[in-house]
Amino acid sequence: MKQRRCINIGLMGLGVVGGGVARILPQKASSMASQIGFPLVIKRVLVRDLKKPRAVSVPSDLLTTDAKDILDDPDIDVVIEVIGGESPAHDYILAALNKGKHVVTANKEVMAKHGPELLAVAKEKGVDVLYEASVGGGIPIIAPFKHDLTANKITAIHAIINGTTNYILTKMAKENLDFGAALEEAKALGYAEADPTNDIEGYDAAYKLAILATLAFGQTVRPADIHCEGITRLAARDFRYARELGYTIKLVAIAKEVEGTIEARVHPAFLPEGLLLAKVDGVFNAIYVEGDLVGKVLFYGQGAGALPTSSAIVADVIEVASDITAGVGNRWRSKQSAGMPIRPMSSVETRYYLRMIVDDRAGVLAQIASSLGRNSISIASCIQKEANASAKTAEIVIMTHLAREAGMQKALGELRELSTVKEIGNFVRVEGMG
Amino acid sequence: MKQRRCINIGLMGLGVVGGGVARILPQKASSMASQIGFPLVIKRVLVRDLKKPRAVSVPSDLLTTDAKDILDDPDIDVVIEVIGGESPAHDYILAALNKGKHVVTANKEVMAKHGPELLAVAKEKGVDVLYEASVGGGIPIIAPFKHDLTANKITAIHAIINGTTNYILTKMAKENLDFGAALEEAKALGYAEADPTNDIEGYDAAYKLAILATLAFGQTVRPADIHCEGITRLAARDFRYARELGYTIKLVAIAKEVEGTIEARVHPAFLPEGLLLAKVDGVFNAIYVEGDLVGKVLFYGQGAGALPTSSAIVADVIEVASDITAGVGNRWRSKQSAGMPIRPMSSVETRYYLRMIVDDRAGVLAQIASSLGRNSISIASCIQKEANASAKTAEIVIMTHLAREAGMQKALGELRELSTVKEIGNFVRVEGMG
Prior knowledge:
The structure is a homodimer.
Chain A: E1 7-12, H1 16-27, H2 29-36, E2 40-46, E3 63-64, H3 68-71, E4 76-81, H4 89-98, E5 102-105, H5 108-125, E6 129-130, H6 142-146, E7 154-160, H7 163-175, H8 179-188, H9 197-200, H10 203-217, E8 227-228, H11 236-245, E9 247-258, E10 261-272, E11 284-291, E12 295-302, H12 306-326, E13 349-359, H13 364-374, E14 379-388, E15 393-400, E16 403-404, H14 405-417, E17 421-430
Parallel strand pairs in A: 1-2, 1-4, 2-3, 4-5, 5-6, 8-10, 10-17
Antiparallel strand pairs in A: 7-9, 7-11, 9-10, 11-12, 13-15, 13-16, 13-17, 14-15
Helix pairs in contact in A: 1-12, 4-5, 5-10, 7-8, 13-14
């Protein structure tokens, strides 16, 4: 065994997060060295463009555009992957593990789509792949699942894990903005990307939920297993009704065990305003976890940003570095899995908020109620407002009792066919987190 | 090295928490064995009374009243200490470490008073002492400080870490109960002990804060370093004024770095009702942590109870058990310490709520204001109410701007001397967590 004098790191990616890591690691080097026993040294940095001006000063001889300079360097012990996106990041991580390097990644897409396979390769090669930064920025959540909560049978996760959409929804709620205006503001502040699809359509939240659910239930939950709806359908008037009814609208990521199946979904939901989760505003994230022993625990903090994400990445690096120092290889401990099937969305039960424009005349509400009733949906409360006197239409808002998604979709189809129903304004699920 | 077939545990204490552990460990045995590689076996259980009827069924031949049966048994790898209190628990933990046994403890008093010394002995002996259950029940908080947040310079902790007092304060706030009535209710529900001194005087919270501050700042903070006030002075009328002014009263445990010193204190405080911490009700706990990278993170959950505490203990047991399996000894990584002095309470700055009964006549408020002014305390707002028409007294409530404790104490002394001030009803610090 070679005489070790330091732990060499290959950093892949020097964007917002990579730049943060490149700045933080040297700053914290001396205190980290005292914890680990060896200094951490960034030996190479993979970038796409050597000449791009950067906020962080990295010696130019460290920069390379060739991934092989990191992957094929036997002196590099740890690879930090902060390129993002599925490809080529996935190939690089796989290659690094196969070369016997530990990997620390912030990549939710890769971990959601390929995590179980990468963890298996890492185990085989006697190294670790750590990914605390992939969910919730700096909020400790992956490690608590792997360690602190490991004695629990996890029964449910309710989370707000996309800061961009939470910022937009908070703006819509507090300032009565329309979706488009709130999105523009999020873009202007750098909270939303030029192409915001991944965030606003819920894909980013679904990746993160897949990672959390896989950890929580000890079995692979893929993004494709998760019913996913974004926030683009929400209108300012939905927020006004929500407030009137005592609710807040959030993009929730839910995974829970229901009758021996795993229910996993990402969609906007009405949350009673008294819930802690309903009070998570702006770019903050929160993850509510329920276990058979621990009861309910909540983790809250900034879900993104260069510094919080660096906090998680550097912690993971210190973790593998001290394992290297201690001579420990792979520490992944797989949980026993019950092998539960994914519950089809049609079988999911929630309450619903339903807003529609109808003819303002006698008998219309009875028509709607009977259509809902035929599909086993009972009405908990109803608000009817005169929407447009000249058009003789009214807006009706219905809150249902617990109903099955299949019935609700069938009822919505029937309502659309009614000549007296001019428009289905929106329908949003209601979560009590019970 | 002997051929290992299982990991043997000595359980010290079979009360509420010990009974929980004795029930949970066998229930979770198979899934834990698959994680660790070896089954966990409770080999001996230390009790005070062999004949006491117990809710949990433990084979009677496991029970012993002699600690030596655990401490001197070379086959016992891990000692779980859940006796509580300083003595003899401290002696047992020390003896176990000296015998080369790993220790898992829920003992906040021992860890607050002797933690740094015990960790040093453990390091010397190549074993670990883990104490996740000592703060916040099942809420992951010790491990996040040691691992997830380790890259951060921690700047502040604001916590609600005593469930008993939080239950009492929640009752007082929501049902206008007096302290005595709320305490009786907490006792009836088993949330307060027959002798509730440790909880209601803030000592329990101070122990926990000492543990957290020691971890956060990487230097020893003792219970004696912490200014500690309990909740017995609070009256129903303080809660009414708090509500009127937009605040909630909580017993807060605060440790923060201020101008190169460590400020550490436990006392009731007015919290603006919009803060997440102000919404932590009943027996729940929450710990707000601020770090230079991660920003603000919050951990929330049940701070006590047999199951949540067992969740933390069993997680710690799995942690040491997998270290035993991996052949790893002590994993304690000490942080570099800045060696900051403890800030004297007299130098602490907060805002204050001040309630008093005064003569209801002209010039009294001017007298009070000038006394406060002499001590550099400026008034932010003032409510005056006619308290007692026949006695011609009025109640005055003053909210101050930021002021120094020394000045406030001096002003309180002066106010007590004023003939027009009949009674200082209460004074409570106001925390904005800024």
